Amino acid sequence: MLKKPESNEYAPYYEKYVSSIPEGDLLQILDEQMRETMNLVKDLKEDQAQFRYAPEKWTIKEVIGHITDTERIMSYRMLCIGRGEKAELPGYDDNQYVKNGKFNRFSIRELSAQMSQVRQNTIALLKSLDDEALLRRGNANGTEVTARAIAYIIAGHEHHHRTLIKERYMGAESYGRVNG
Questions:
Q1: What percent of the chain has pLDDT over 90?
Q2: Within 10 A of 54 (CB to CB), how many other CB atoms are there?
Q3: In the chain, alpha helices (H)
Q4: What is the pTM of this model?
Q5: The pLDDT of residue 1
């Protein structure tokens, strides 16, 4: 079973993500997370999925798109590092990705399906990495990281944003006034 990474396996910025994931079978946690997120958004009407809790904040659709894009990027990093890549992997500007992703043009169902498919691919990749690969170190966005840490960062990032959807979006007083 995959153990949680040590704090020297990732940048301090990611501590909030890694520490939010409980001990246990990470593959099972990733699978359960996806079911929880799909259950959270499956009954959203399109106008609810377009909700933003503040004027400059992303819509729920944009948050789902962001989670998916970030997982794609992090899975790529996990693959590269797990396979022994020595080149520095680039960072990315998440606000620019959301802007250029134009996620609001997709239905919430389409975005959910993409997210689920990406998660299934992440799980398949993680299953393919042995202990040696998971402990390999590489450089992403200017910091050293292990493939194992990236797997936990993926889980923690999704957990973080699902919590925001529940609390800041669906928990907003104005969300209740969305027609749905």
A1: 94
A2: 9
A3: 15-19, 26-41, 46-49, 60-82, 94-101, 108-128, 131-134, 147-164
A4: 0.96
A5: 72
Q: Taking the CB of residue 106, how many other CB atoms lie within 10 A of it? A: 17
The DSSP annotation for 82-112 comes to HTT--SPBP---HHHHHHHHTGGGS-HHHHH
Measured in whole angstroms, how far is the alpha carbon of residue 167 from the centre of its chain? 17
Whether 38 contacts 116, CB under 8 Å: yes
- What number is the average pLDDT over the span 45-62? 96
| Both tokens assigned to 23 | 């001990």
Secondary element (H or E) of residue 165: none
Rounded to whole angstroms, how far apart are CA atoms 87 and 74?
15
Could you read off the pLDDT of 91-143 as tens digits, one per residue?
A: 999 999 999 999 999 999 999 999 999 999 999 999 999 999 999 999 999 99
In sequence order, the 6+-apart residues with CB closer than 8 A to the CB of 103 are 59, 61, 62, 64, 65, 66, 111
Joined together, the tokens standing for residue 65 give 């798109």
- What is the spatial distance between Cα 153 and Cα 42, in angstroms, rounded to a whole number? 24
